[in-house]
Structures are given as structure tokens and as C-alpha cells.
UniProtKB/TrEMBL annotation:
Keywords linked to the UniProt accession: Flavoprotein, FMN
Flavoprotein listed as a keyword: yes
Protein name: NADPH-dependent FMN reductase-like domain-containing protein
Domain NADPH-dependent FMN reductase-like: 34-191
Gene Ontology molecular function: oxidoreductase activity
PANTHER family given in the database record: NAD(P)H-DEPENDENT FMN-CONTAINING OXIDOREDUCTASE YWQN-RELATED
Pfam families named among the record's database cross-references: FMN_red
InterPro entries: Flavoprotein-like_sf, FMN_Rdtase-like_dom, ISF_SsuE-like
């Protein structure tokens, strides 16, 4: 019996040493990860920006670089369905007089993407939707540029309409084969005037938990992807419900 106990202790020590060794190796080759956040509100310091910042603070606390882009007051046209991005295959939208193409490349270069929108008539704010339609269409027809990046969405709302907005933003993430971290409730924060979400204790916690989970998933992917290969991309089947 004492021989077995001694052996058990030795095994445990070896396992601990092995874990410490693997951990040190992972830390040594820690790669600088980056998350880019898009604030769909015209308010640079509004409730959407505050919500996104709480997520970003958690990511930064985990050593992840962050950047927030304010979409809300820019002049961004909606998709004109010209299919230029399909024809040209240059990772760019054919409309060139706004920052959408620059932001597509920023998203391509990032490891994680955060989408945030205020609720406007129970929907995503118009400028944000115009940007997302164009950027994600370009991505999908140019080899799926955002595939396997980690992506999450948040919404800011006075009273109701938060869920459909998060839901709509999640459609872009889902369609792109991105990996979505979750929180402990829907990613919605409440407030009317800029900054009022600071009083929404539960909303703030939702954002914190989301940031922590997002950072953890990003680290897991970074450390695991060379050991476990990603699934091969597939040729998309388009069934257009016509005969
Ligand atoms: C055009 C417009 C439409 C809005 N529609 C809604 C709505 O449908 N439901 C709601 O609860 N709040 C609505 N709001 C309030 C905003 O969602 C709320 O003030 C939010 O906190 C704004 O976020 P921001 O500070 O990031 O701009 C609306 C505000 C505007 C300007």
C-alpha cells in the first residue's frame, strides 16, 4: 500500500512539473492578440461605447490589444447590390468613398471582432447596418476573411428591442463561421442618456463576463490551433428555393 501511495505522489509531482513546463512554454510564445470593436452609435461616449469599453477592459486585462472604431456619425451608404466585390475578388467594396474598405482590412488583421449598436426602433442603428452589410458581404465572397475569428455583439437600449439587435448582429458572426463567446445573460445594457448604463449593475456584469470569456476563448484558440487543426473550409452550397 505504501509503495502505491509513494508511486501516486510521484505521478502527481510529474504531472505538476509537466503542467508547469507546458504553461511556461505557452507564456514564452505568447502572441500579441488584437480585438477590434465597432461602436454603431453616433455617441462616442454613449451607452454602446461604455458597454463595449467594459468588454475591452477585460480583454486588455488579459493582455489583448484593443481598438474601438466609432461608426455612428460617418456617412456610410448601404449595399447597392452591384456584386462588384464578387467580380473583382479584391477584398473590397466597390463603393470607395467611405472607410468601409479600411475597416474590412482591420477586421481581417484582428483576432477578435466586437460589434455594438444602440437600439433604434427595435433594430440595429442604420449606419452600423450599412457598414455591416457591405463588410460581411465582401468577406463572404472573398474567401471568408473573418472565418474562425472570435466575435461577439452587444446592444444598448432604453427599454426594449435589445434582444432583436443582439440577434441581428449575431447573424453576421454566425454567417462568417466565427467563434462566439457568451455571457451570463443576453449582451444588453440599459440606459437612455449617454453613460446611464453605468447604473445598470447587471448589464455591466454581463459585459465583464463576456470580456473574460472572450479573452479565455481567444487564448485557448491561440494555444490549441497548432495541435488541433481547424476543419477544412467547404465550398458553399447555395440553394435558392427555386426549381
Ligand atoms: C432613433 C432612435 C430610436 C430609438 N429606439 C429605441 C427603441 O426602439 N427602444 C428603446 O428602448 N430605446 C430606443 N432608443 C433609445 C436608445 O436605444 C438608448 O438611448 C441607448 O442607450 C442609446 O445608446 P447610445 O448612448 O450608445 O447612443 C432610440 C433612440 C434613438 C435616437
Amino acid at each position: 500500500m505504501s509503495h502505491l501511495r509513494r508511486k501516486g505522489r510521484l505521478d502527481a509531482m510529474q504531472a505538476e512539473q509537466e503542467l508547469a513546463r507546458v504553461g511556461t512554454n505557452l507564456e514564452k510564445r505568447r502572441i500579441q492578440l488584437k480585438v477590434i470593436a465597432f461602436n454603431g452609435s453616433p455617441n462616442k461616449e454613449g451607452n454602446t461605447a461604455c458597454s463595449l469599453q467594459i468588454v475591452l477592459d477585460q480583454l486588455e486585462g488579459a493582455g489583448i490589444e484593443t481598438e474601438m472604431i466609432h461608426v455612428g456619425k460617418k456617412k456610410i451608404q448601404g449595399c447597392i447590390a452591384c456584386y462588384g466585390c464578387v467580380k473583382n475578388q479584391n477584398e473590397a467594396c466597390a463603393i470607395k468613398n467611405d472607410p468601409v474598405n479600411e475597416w474590412i482590412q482591420k477586421m481581417k488583421a484582428a483576432d477578435g471582432i466586437l460589434l455594438g449598436s444602440p437600439v433604434h426602433f427595435a433594430g440595429v442603428a442604420g449606419t452600423m447596418k450599412s457598414f455591416l452589410d457591405r463588410a460581411f458581404f465582401v468577406s463572404s465572397v472573398n474567401g471568408n476573411l473573418f472565418r474562425h475569428k472570435v466575435g461577439a455583439a452587444v446592444a444598448a437600449v432604453r427599454r426594449s428591442g435589445g434582444i432583436p439587435v443582439v440577434d441581428t448582429l449575431n447573424h453576421y458572426i454566425n454567417y462568417s463561421e466565427m467563434i462566439m463567446p457568451s455571457s451570463n445573460y443576453w449582451n444588453v445594457a440599459h440606459g437612455l442618456k449617454p453613460g446611464e448604463m453605468e447604473q445598470d449593475g447587471e448589464g455591466k456584469q454581463v459585459m465583464e463576463v463576456l470580456g473574460k470569456n472572450m479573452a479565455w476563448i481567444m487564448r485557448l484558440i491561440e494555444h490549441g490551433k497548432e495541435h488541433i487543426p481547424a476543419p477544412e473550409p467547404v465550398e458553399k452550397i447555395m440553394t435558392n428555393f427555386i426549381r
